[in-house]
Amino acid sequence: MDFRQSSVRNCGLHMCPLSNDQTIHEESFDDLLKSALELTGIGAWSCDLRTERLSWTPAVFDIFGLPRDKSVERGDAVAMYAEPSRLMLEQLRSAAIANRTSFALEARIVRPDGTNRWIRLKAGTKVENGRAVTLYGMKQDITAERQHWEQLRRLAEHDALTGLANRTHFQARFLDRSDGSEMFAPPGALALFDLDNLGEINRRWGLAAGDACLIAFARRLLAAYADRTFTARLGGGKFAMVLGNGANEPLLETRARDRFSHLGEPVFWNGVPVPLSVFVGIVFVRRFQDHEAEAVYAQADLALQTAKRKEGRSPRVMASTFNGGKHPAIGLESPAYPIPGRTKPDMLPLSPRETEALRHMSRGCTIDEIAHEMEVSRHTVRNFIRRVYQKLEVDTRVEAVQLAYQNGIL
């Protein structure tokens, strides 16, 4: 039913008819509708495709930060769109005109005063004699909405205590990257860090002291490489840092130790120096393909475990190089470096397929390579690995392979 013809108004819980002298005339209704739309940041627009002449309601001028009393050329309006948004707009616009259809777009614009705004644009086509002659629709300022969702996204992807990316974000940005991914440039190095005495700090000085040490450690990580990095807290006292190609260094442990030397300095808590026990495993990447991210991570994890067996003051650093392709089998070092107290004669038995997945893991195969060899999906492989970790009661690939060798599973 047309609002203008219904002559009703909302009175609390009831719909009450308007008297004759209260009837909303068409002119006043249009003014009311225009005012309501402007209140929500929505404006109407049209473009005559024969002349490219624009027609805007006042709200659209306000969205673009332009004076209402001046006409706007389409070229000038389009120039205010940020480059990616402008390219998408022109592509969708051309397709809508050619096919006489509609489209929608969320775009970023830059106002004349330099401020950035996000708008939602919806467009339809008016057709005469089989040809599109007019584009028309609405534009809405959704900057506040975008900021709200960006804040929620950031909360979902970042660790609340340190402000670094969380493990889920690291998984998506690095481990789950696919061939040709544009989410992250090829890494120059991957470093894994373990604040090994976090539990002791929590027990001796309290959880607040432990939190203070985690925050200070996160800041030190960010200071180690000021740019070209992606840093994440993986959980507890474990952190990861992906360095860009420009940060690739020669394979010199002394260089890596110098870079991270400040990580092991005590953190002062209520005037008391709290010592930090820090281990670092870093892999410098010479050649890399996206599907090798798991292999790089496994090698960095192995370097971290090796650093824990070294002697010396904190931080203890172990560095290696990843040359692409298969890296040496992780399990080869297991007999020489057994994990104390980890032999488990009563552990849950692995299924044949879980054992097969573990065998591929010991050879340094990536998730994609295991999926190909076992003729299953990546998701199925991850389920195999998750069950292996649960049954062996371990958290990493290195631990799983080492424990499997010690117990005769491999």
UniProtKB/TrEMBL annotation:
Residues 186-321 form the GGDEF domain. Gene3D superfamilies: 2.10.70.100, 3.30.70.270, PAS domain, Winged helix-like DNA-binding domain superfamily/Winged helix DNA-binding domain. InterPro entries: Biofilm_reg_signaling (IPR052155), GGDEF_dom (IPR000160), Nucleotide_cyclase (IPR029787), PAS (IPR000014), PAS-assoc_C (IPR000700), PAS-like_dom_sf (IPR035965), PAS_fold_3 (IPR013655), Rev_trsase/Diguanyl_cyclase (IPR043128). CDD domains: GGDEF, LuxR_C_like, PAS. SMART domains: GGDEF, HTH_LUXR. One of its GO terms (biological process) is regulation of DNA-templated transcription. Residues 103-154 form the PAC domain. One of its GO terms (molecular function) is DNA binding. Pfam families: GerE, GGDEF, PAS_3. Signal peptide: none annotated. Residues 343-408 form the HTH luxR-type domain. PANTHER family: BIOFILM ARCHITECTURE MAINTENANCE PROTEIN MBAA, DIGUANYLATE CYCLASE DGCP. This is Diguanylate cyclase.
